[in-house]
Amino acid sequence: MKISRFVAVAFCMSALLSNATALAATKNAHVATKNFFFKPALTIEYSAPRLSAGGDNAEFKTNNLANQLKGFENIALGFHVRVHKYLGFNVNWSQTDLNNDKLQGESISQKARLNLDYYNFSALFFAPIKSSAKIEFFGEVGVSDIRNRLSYVDSTGGFFVDKDHETRAFFGAGFQMAPFAKSDDMIRFSALRYLGEIDIISSNLTMVRLGYVKTF
User: Fold this and answer.
1) What residues form DSSP beta bridges with 175?
2) CATH architecture under which domain 38-215 falls
């Protein structure tokens, strides 16, 4: 009789333990699921390009601000989705127009013009500041699909156009802040460095960006 009672108690305890384990697993899965979410946003950023290396080709400069805005130059439009407190994904498009009085290895009679048309695809890894829910730093890694066009007139009056298409990895860092009390919209600042030289001018490219993140 005692053995049968012991078996019954053991069976009940085993069933209770099994149910408790299953409940804990379900709760943990629910908590883990809650850590992920879907928060989309649109982005618009002003991109200030900087070239380095490549001799005279590093001297390509942007137009004045009025002409940049008129030609929609150096403006990056994109889509951002935040999926976790520490993770987000970004895609944007931008075009950059630069001018230079010189061109490495060439004698030119007019300013050379360089156009970069590119798409960036990246992952952002966030580090929120614990003491502030409004500011967070982030690191960014990704890949860029770049179409280049270099046009110039040489010293004899000949007009030349060189085109190229390349893919470059890039990395960067920045921070963003939400200054509005009733909105999650953010102001974002970042700097990106593209790995390797832009082939058409044999120069390194860095971008400094300042923009607005409109959340939904």
Assistant:
1) 137, 189
2) Beta Barrel (2.40)
The answer to whether the beta carbons of residues 213 and 185 sit under 8 Å apart is yes
- Residue 163 CA to residue 94 CA, distance in Å, equals 17
Instruction: Say how far apart CA 125 and CA 88 lie, in whole Å.
Output: 7
- Residue 176 in contact with residue 186, Cβ under 8 Å? yes
In a 10 Å sphere around its CB, with 0-12 CB exposed, 13-18 middle and 19+ buried, how is residue 159 labelled? exposed
Structural tokens at position 195: 């790995």
Pairing assessment for the beta strands 61-62 and 159-177 based on DSSP bridges: unpaired
- What tokens appear for 124 in the block? 């952002």
pTM of the model: 0.78
Residue 151 is encoded by which pair of tokens?
């046009």
Answer whether residue 15 shows pLDDT above 80: no
The full set of domain ranges for the chain reads: 1-34, 38-215
Number of alpha helices (DSSP H) and beta strands (DSSP E) in the chain: 2, 9
Give strand pairing partners of 33. none
Half-sphere exposure of 54 (CA within 13 A, CB side): 23
Q: Is residue 34 very low, low, confident or very high in pLDDT (cuts 50, 70, 90)?
A: low
10 Å Cβ neighbour count for 209?
21
Tokens 């931008």, residue?
94
